[in-house]
Specification:
alpha/beta, 21 strands, OB fold (Dihydrolipoamide Acetyltransferase, E2P), 28% helix, seven-stranded mixed β-sheet, Rossmann fold, 453 residues, 3 domains
Amino acid sequence: MENKIELKKGLILKNIKNNNSLFDGLSYEGLCIIRDFEIPIFVYNLLPNESANIEITYYSKKCCFAKVIKLLNVSKERRILNEYEKLLYESGSAPLLSLDYSKQIEFKETLIKKLFARNLNIKEINPIIKSPKEFFYRNKITLQIEYKENEILFGFFKKYSHSLIPQINLLLANKQINNFYKNILLNPQTEIDIKIKETIFSLGPNKITLRSSNLDNNIEIVLNINKKIEKRLIDELIELNKLKKNYKISIFDELKNKWINLLEHQGIKYQIDNIFFEVKNDSFYQINEELAKLIYKQILDWIPNKNLNIVDAFSGVGTIACFIANKTKKVYSIEINNNATTQAKRNIEINKISNIEIINADANEWISKNKEAIDLVIFDPPREGLKNKSIEAIIQSQIKQIIYLSCDPKTLIRDLKEFTYSGYSIKKIQSYDMFPQTPHIETLVLIERKNET
C-alpha cells in the first residue's frame, strides 16, 4: 500500500524498511529501492533486510534519492568497513563496498540472468568470472584536488556533488600507484621529489591522473589545468623531470584543449602474455589488466579458424588486434582517433606483426564499403554501446559472426535485440567482474548469423 506522505528535499523518513531480497532490493547502480511511496526512493547505503532513518537529498516528480542518517537494523551481509574503506564508500566510487564480495557476485550474476531472460528469452548463463583481485586492481586512477591554506587534498568528489572526500589509501588502485601516492604526493621522501611536488602544484592542477606499467617502475602523471599556465614553471618542471625520467609527466591545458608533454616519450608499457603495448596519456587501455587477459583469451578461443578476415572495430591502440593476429588470416584494426591509430602502428611494429592493417577511419562507413572482405567483427564500444548506423552496417553486410565486448549490460541488451530481430542468434555469453566493489559488469557475447533456408 502506497504511503501518501508528501515527499520533498530535506524530508526525514523514519524506520524505512528494505524487505526485498538482495536481487529485488538493489538497483543496477547498487542503490536500495524503496517502493512504499507514490514514486520510488533510491537510498545509498541501505542493503536488503535493513531498516533506517533516511533523508531525501534529491526530489523530482519521477523519483527521489536519499541517504541513511541512522541504521536501525543491520543485515548479516553487510561488511564492517575500516577507516580507509569508509572514505572510499562515502565518495560513492565503490557503491558495493559494504556488501560481501560473494554477494556482489551473486547480485551481478542475477542481474545479467534477469536481463537476458526478460529481454531475449535466454535462461542459461555461465557464472560470472571473478576478478583475481577484489582490491588494488586498477592500473589507472584520477584524483580531484582541493587546495587548503596549509595543505593539498586528493580524493574523489562525492556522487552528484563537488564535495571532495579525501583519500588516505587508494584501495582500488594497484600497489605501484599507491606507493607513488603515499611517498610522492602525500609525503615525498627525497629532495628532488619534494621539489617536483612543489612545482607541480604551483601550476595549480584541478585533478591528477596516475597510470602505472606492469613492465617497469614508470608512472604516467597527467595534470589537468584550467587556468593560464606559466612557462617559467613548465621549464622548471622539465628540468626536474630529467632527473626522474620514470615520471612520464604530461599536462592537459583545459583552456586551450591541448596536451603538453614535458619529455618526449612513447608511453606507458604493458605486457599481456607475449604481446607488448605502449599506451599514451590520451588513449584507452583496460583498467584491470589481469581480467582483461582472460577476456582476450576467450575472444581468441571463439575465433573458429585461422582463415578469417577479422575487423577489430573501435580498436584504439590495437590491443585486441595484436592479441588475436596470430590466429587469423588478416586483421583490419579500425580506429577514428588519429593519435590512437599512430600508437596502434607503433604496437604492431613492437610485436613484429605483419597481418594487421591499421585504418584511420569511421568503422561503420568502412564496414559498409568493405563488407565482402569480412568474416568476423569484434566490437568493444564505449558504455553507450553501438550506434544505430553500426548495427545497420553489420546487418546489411550479412557478416557471419560478431564478438561483442560490452561494459554496460543495458546497452548490450538493447543492441542484441536489434541483431536478433535481424537474423542473428546469440551463441555464447560470458560475464566478468572487471570492477569489484562497483556495479559495473563486462560481458562478452558471440553472435552468429542464422543460416538461410
